Description:
Distance between the termini: 56 Å
Number of strands: 0
Strand content: under 5%
Order of helices and strands: HHHHHHHH
Amino acid sequence: MKFNPDSPFFQFMNSLAAFIGLNVIFLITCLPIFTIGPALTALYTVTLKEARKEGGYIFSTYFKAFKENFRQSAAAFLIQLVLALVFLFNAHFWGEQNTVLGNALMFVMTALLVVLALTFLYCYPLMARFENSVRQSMKNAFLIAVTHPKSTLGLAGILAVCLFFCFGFPAFSKVFMILLGFSFLAYCNSMLLVKVFRDYEEDSAECILE
């Protein structure tokens, strides 16, 4: 039997091994919580390139992006983490008051959490693809989320399916997420994101992505 390294099977196995390695590196670089932002940006740098069929060396690309985007991505994640904790605490606190004012403020905090979640979906892929300040990246993330509702629903749907399997099949999902889950999820997202970002890679996008 002859082994053909260019056969579809071996190409698939090679890609699978690379994505498993990418997933493990992502998890390791997430361990100090404040590095989750840089790790996400580096992960999306790789998966966006793969989705655009640009290829390249996965691991060197990851570590280069992790280093180059560390400050901005870490700052963005810490800001979003603090805001999420503040909004969650206030939503719970005011919801427990059982008053008209309390319910109104709980609704406001919940709406702010939705805005934050929409921003989170696009923030790190944007940092992986475009050079902007933290403030501009977060602003662009929200603007793109609301102006591309189909893509946003697609990203939310992918996340919802992932969460369904995590809670519905915890034993299987733990193994899957450790081995492949995050890199696979980022790649699925990237397949949608490359179409969205294509609109902003032209000169006409300068009014938004500057």
